[in-house]
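From the shared-data thread, chain only:
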Amino acid sequence: MKMPTVKYQRGDMVMGRWPGSSLYYVVKVLGFDAKSQLYTVIYKDGTELELKEQDIKSAAGFQTRSRSRSRSRSPGRRRSRSRSPARTTRRSSSRTAAAIAAAAITETAPCSRRDTKLKDTLEQQTKAAENNSNNKHEKKEEKQKEENNTANKVNEVSESKAEGEPEKNQGRYNLRRRKDDGDAKPAEAKPEQLEEKEAKLAAGLAAPPSTPLDFGGKMGAYFWLLFLPAWVLFVILQVNLEDPSLANFPPPLPPLEAFWDAQALGFVVLWILFHALLYILPVGKLSEGMPLRSGERLKYRTNGFFAILLSCVAVAAAVHQGVDLTYIHSHFLQLAAASLLISVLLSVYLYVRSYYAAPEQLALGGNSGNVLYDFFKGRELNPRIKNFDLKFFCEMRPGLIGWCLINFAMALAEMKQQGLDAPSYSMILVNLFQLLYVVDGLWNEEAILTTMDLMHDGFGFMLAFGDLVWVPFTYTLQAYYLVGHPNPLSLPALAAIVTLKLVGFYIFRKSNSEKNTFRRNPSDPTLSHLKTIPTATGKSLLVSGWWGVVRHPNYLGDLIMALAWSLPCGFSHLLPWYYMIYFIILLVHRDSRDMSECRRKYGSAWDEYCRTVRYRIVPRVY
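Structure, as tokens:
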């Protein structure tokens, strides 16, 4: 089969047409998709679009045409469409024409990209004209002409833009970037600064600009760095009380030596190394991630299901050899402290190494310039040691599979402490429900490559702590609670909870599968019945199936499952409902972040999507 000819190569600086208009701006080619016959390009403000070949022109050829067009469309040859007396039809000087052309390039659209060579030529013309003018009165008169004709030219370019737009785009989408995007207007910075910044971005020497700060900004980062570890230690100390009522706050603080155990640290390190070994084994599928800003697609070894199977075999062998896994229950605090220490050391390493990473490898959200905020959020998007992806590994392996190991240890501890021959129904439900959740995630491990964590968030303390401490030591709170506070269940209650779990799991899995399939291949035949809304970026938004019911049906399924995990613990205490409460806050916040990002990225198409799919997570409620 003959391969299609690629006219423009990755890294080429060319002129790209802005969708829905006749205006061309300087863009950098990131790659070419042979299947869709589209070029992925990036504008100098970070906007990425997919363009057809006919919408791209070489910079050299476009420069010549731009010069001739600039001369032929002198404002002195066109009659103003306005009756404003300030506008004239007299031929302007070369200085005025040059100023108008420069203004047209820099002010016609919020996403303008200037042709540097053309701008230099215009500036030279302007300087030459200024040297020939010695009379102050003439300068003042020409300045007035320049202001009037500039306004004339801007209006004419805006009108020509509207005339060049297809009718369907005029009435449907506003392709301009919104004011709240945080983009600075070119006129607000000195030309020299803009030239230097744009040259660095084009050459890949400057770090990409950071997106608006999340989690309360810089002060929020200070708060979370202190609060999150303190909260984990609090819930562990609280749930260990004979009466874990929040009325008994604060729990008694043990001596400092109670937080440290060298054997616990060795156990955590050994567990992480064991899973690192499983991760690098050449077993399982080698999956491609989503395209990065550079156009590159990283490869990931998605063998998580193999890892959890081998972990089960290893744990069964250890129990058979007489290893007492109830050690995890009795040393839970020390294990959490050891994991916290490892997550902090890992975060320091990640922050330091980010300064040796190339600019295109940095995350947009962790490049604020504030040390603590960037340490918390993560500067580097995909830190790797050769082919070993640190973020992907921590996201899916030691903490997630450790969650199941801890739950199993809690079941053994319940049997030992309560003198039972088998775990209680409540403990069995919690173990099975959460095991199903983890196994499903590892079976569909490839789907995580399209999530916000992998695609947008840098790898710093937030994710390192979340993966290694938060998940295994707070998501296991229900099982830990049931060890000392059993809750008998009747058969009808048991059946109702199981049904609730299955409903939530079905919604969660079905919606996530639709999303993952659509993101990887929008033309997939299995999705042909689904309706979509096109966007100016070339991508489309799902508005049917589960994604036509609410904007985040996967979050809805998650919340239903969280309810099913909490119900086996009963209603005696609020603490085992922590996961449900926390998850509501987490998903509402994540929905807010997603809304801001999508509104910035898709513009008016996102507004139409929100009008079509009214509810965010819970139908007719939120």
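Residues 291 and 546 are 26 Å apart (CA to CA).
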